[in-house]
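ok so i was messing around last nite and threw this chain in just to see what happens. nothing serious, just curious
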Amino acid sequence: MSAKAPRKKIRWDLWMIVTVGVSIFYMLFLLYPLISMLSKSVIGEDGGFTWQYFAKVFQKKYYQISHDTVSVTHRGQSSLQTAVYKYMNVNG
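result:
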């Protein structure tokens, strides 16, 4: 038989209070708006899943980049943008 180790009680000192406070602040002012914005970007007016908002953004001329004119440092970003744009034109 193995004896269970006793559970350590949480020590509520100054640093634990600061840690909990900063964590709550982080969740309230960074995570909540970010998750809210991302969820609203894929929910259409009828309440269903949609890509219409992304299609509207990526149809702008700024995102229509040719692979031949893209520098090496921006190739990954432009490839993703081009793939999303092509997907929107085919499926949207």
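not much to say yet. Residues 14-40 form the longest helix (27 residues).
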